[in-house]
């Protein structure tokens, strides 16, 4: 049963707005005056993700036109619990909900920590059951079992790839997720670290049934989003 939510009455707005002129007196303008459009970062990413998915489904342009921007087989997702002891999830943030057929999942950014202080981020997800939906219980616990991280296997070292601020959309049984990406390379000097510049990743995932009758999202296909795709649609999205 859904809980009752108290409605808060917003203050009444007027059709006129006041603007202070150069003389110090206030001028009144009409509501019909053109105002600068405002779009939050989350809505911007959601719109970009929808455009990318449409481009992929139609087989035109964007990140799906060639393999030029593909991350390749050396990029793979890994369950955080397979990292061994000493790895913990410090916090969860940027949560969101998505529905695949009759199942609802929560997806969130997971701030992880390993050993002596190596920090990286992954993606945590969990299917919501009747129990978690109808009662105020914590989800994504234990977090290590619900989190996946992205790794790049190089010739000599394994690099953790930070993935942050997930935005998702569902197309049929396929889940598309847009995340920020940053690759951290272990440095020889403990006081120094090297990192590639920020980028965007488009990730495709599917729901798979696991032991015990539960279901889990497995992320697999990962594609770099060309920056030109964002630039071309920026004016269209922001006005």
From TrEMBL:
Keywords, in A-Z order: Membrane, Transmembrane, Transmembrane helix
Lineage of producing organism: Eukaryota, Discoba, Euglenozoa, Kinetoplastea, Metakinetoplastina
Region (Disordered): 1-39
UniProt keyword annotation of Lyase present: no
InterPro entries: Sialidase (IPR011040), Sialidase_sf (IPR036278)
Basic and acidic residues composition-biased segments: 25-36
Domain of life: Eukaryota
Bilayer-spanning residue ranges: 44-64
Organism: Trypanosoma cruzi marinkellei
Sialidase domain: residues covered: 94-237
Pfam families, A to Z: BNR_3 (PF13859)
Tagged with keyword Transmembrane: yes
The protein's name: Trans-sialidase, putative
């Amino acid at each position: 049963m859904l809980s009752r939510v108290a409605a808060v009455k917003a203050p009444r707005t007027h059709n006129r707005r006041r603007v202070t002129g150069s003389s110090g007196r206030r001028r009144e303008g009409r509501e019909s005056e053109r105002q600068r459009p405002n779009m939050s970062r989350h809505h911007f990413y959601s719109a970009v993700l929808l455009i990318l998915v449409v481009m992929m489904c139609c087989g035109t342009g964007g990140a799906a036109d060639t393999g030029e921007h593909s991350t390749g087989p050396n990029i793979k997702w890994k369950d955080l619990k397979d990292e061994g002891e000493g790895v913990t999830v410090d916090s969860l943030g940027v949560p969101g909900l998505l529905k695949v057929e009759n199942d609802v999942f929560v997806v969130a950014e997971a701030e992880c920590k390993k050993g002596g202080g190596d920090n990286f981020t992954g993606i945590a997800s969990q299917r919501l059951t009747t129990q978690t939906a109808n009662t105020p219980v914590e989800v994504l616990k234990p977090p290590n079992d619900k989190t996946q991280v992205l790794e790049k296997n190089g010739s000599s070292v394994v690099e953790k790839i930070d993935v942050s601020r997930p935005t998702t959309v569902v197309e049929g049984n396929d889940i598309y997720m847009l995340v920020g990406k940053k690759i951290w390379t272990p440095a020889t000097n403990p006081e120094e670290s090297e990192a590639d510049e920020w980028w965007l990743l488009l990730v495709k995932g599917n729901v798979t049934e696991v032991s015990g009758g539960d279901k889990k999202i497995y992320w697999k296909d990962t594609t770099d989003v060309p920056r030109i795709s964002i630039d071309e649609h920026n004016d269209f999205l922001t006005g």
